Amino acid sequence: MSETLFGKILSGAIPCHKVYEDERVFAFLDINPLSAGHTLVIPKEPAPTLDALSDESAAALGRALPRICRAVIAVTGVKDYNVIENNGSAAHQAVLHVHFHIIPKPSRDEGLGIGWPARALDPEAGAKIAAKLREKLR
Ligand code: AMP
């Protein structure tokens, strides 16, 4: 698979404003922020989507994410924020390398705006899909 934009950032071929690095995780400022402090947190492993990520990278991301969130809150002074991770082009993923956005929400007009077209869960359909998921996850 060809190297993605974020692979090039990891290798240093493309510059970035780095904010964090450990053995498995790297974080840097988004070049088109939705608000000040908008940070991208990526695994060094070049997995395109979250479902393709190894347990080791997932664990490292799980450890680093809250720490980086705390730093973003402390530095921006904004305590409300969204963490979002898009998978696939229909789900708004532009760069095929797993990345978590940490996006401060300083006001109604800044930060992430979300459409959330919720509908009530049909109990029968819900029971069916939950049973299938439990089976798959056993
Ligand atoms: P997504 O739509 O979830 O794939 O998000 C990709 C993100 O990468 C966008 O928010 C872009 O602004 C950001 N981005 C693209 N190129 C760069 C770059 N060179 N440095 C930092 N962030 C970037």
Note down, in words, how this protein is organized.
It is a single chain. The chain has 138 residues and is of the alpha+beta class. It has a single domain, classed as HIT-like (HIT family, subunit A, 2-Layer Sandwich). The chain is 32% helix and 17% strand. It has a 5-stranded antiparallel beta sheet with strand order 1-2-3-5-4, with helices on one face. A hairpin with a 3-residue loop joins strand 1 and strand 2. The protein starts with a helix and ends with a helix. The model has no long low-confidence stretch (mean pLDDT 97). The structure holds adenosine monophosphate (AMP).
Annotate the secondary structure layout.
Blueprint lengths: L4 H7 L6 E4 L3 E5 L9 E5 L11 H22 L4 E4 L15 E5 L18 H15 L1
Antiparallel strand pairs: 1-2, 2-3, 3-5, 4-5
Bound molecules: adenosine monophosphate.
The site of adenosine monophosphate has 12 residues, from loops.
Summarize this structure as a short list of keywords or feature phrases:
five-stranded antiparallel beta sheet, alpha+beta, HIT family, subunit A, binds adenosine monophosphate
Structural class: alpha+beta
Order of helices and strands: HEEEHEEH
**Assigned CATH class:** Alpha Beta
| Strand arrangement across the biggest beta sheet | 1-2-3-5-4
Q: Please state roughly what percent of the residues sit in beta strands, choosing from under 5%, 5-15%, 15-25%, 25-35%, 35-45% or over 45%.
A: 15-25%
Largest sheet: 5 strands, antiparallel
User: What is the overall silhouette?
Assistant: globular
Ligands in the model, by name, code or SMILES, are: adenosine monophosphate
* Structure summary, number of beta strands: 5
Count of domains: 1
CATH architecture: 2-Layer Sandwich
End-to-end C-alpha gap: 31 Å
- Please, what is the average pLDDT? 97
Task: Please bin the fraction of helical residues.
Answer: 25-40%
CATH homologous superfamily placement = HIT-like
